[in-house]
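Friendly challenge for the regulars: who can give me the structure tokens for this chain first? No prize, just bragging rights.
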Amino acid sequence: MKLSPKRWRLSAIALLTALSTLFLVNSQAYASQPGEGTSWGQETAGGTIIQTYGALAEERSPNNNVLIQVWRTWDNTVAVSVNHGPRFDLPAATTYASPQVVLEHEDGSNAIFRVFHTGTDGHVYYGSVTAGPNDQTPHVYGLWSQVSGGVVTPNNFAVTVTGGPNGGAYLAYRGANSLEVWRTYFDGRSWDAPSRIPGVTTQYSPVLRSLWGGWRTTTYINTVYNLVYTGTDHRINVIRQTPGRGDWWGHEILSEMTGDDSAELAISSTGQGQVAVRHNNQVALTTINQYGGWQGTWDMENTGHVALAIFLVAYQYRAYLIAQYSNGYVDWKPSRQF
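First reply, four minutes later:
Bragging rights claimed.
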């Protein structure tokens, strides 16, 4: 999506507000989310409407406004678009799941991103893509490295990744031979030993998000990791972890709604976030706080848009919903103002 630079300048006031706001107030069920848009725009690459096989994911750098969008094509390749430029298929990558992207760091006028995908063998691979604000094709290097430690997931399951301190990356994934969810962390040099997240089971891919990553936060104590997943009873769950600690805490069931498949999550610079899930092929939305507490009700997306796959992303104070619909075309709209 195309954004004004004003929308994603970090505000210290917003961060202080987030730290003092631990619980959210209720809102009327099935009403619009605050600031939710009422119309959709089309995602394009090089002037051509994007078609995906699954969800489109994106990430944006804070200081030089470099946008990277990644998706699985109908040919099962991993495609990239830089700043809405033409589709570029990354070499030597075949996947049956939606790829993911996370900002690594900014280097002068360039931004370096890590792209992850599930291989056809179920192993997870990653590589780096660099671009500047005026680029429309990526500079590709370091493709592909395998996530170590025996990380493997069903070959049609997406993994989930969020940023960490000092350019790190935190990865979560569904186990290959069970319903358990596992995690592993990359400190910029190596991956730690994978470990199971206690008490978390799902038939689908989990989603892990945090404020880490470029503009979102630079203060270690201001963020926690939030994992959202659809339970085996199809109810939506959230569980949290503090950086530097091994335990998970703050489990909540976001009741009164069931999901067709994986839930989605985006966390804004205020510390509040939005959860989305497909329910009977439409999208249900609710609001959470990264430290605990949630809206208490769900709102149905206000246009009744049919979605076959979804992705959420937040830039500064606003969340955006990206939805794939018939024939693989992709639309986007603002879904929450914080």
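Residues 4-29 have pLDDT under 50 and may be disordered. The helical segments are 12-20. Your move, everyone else.
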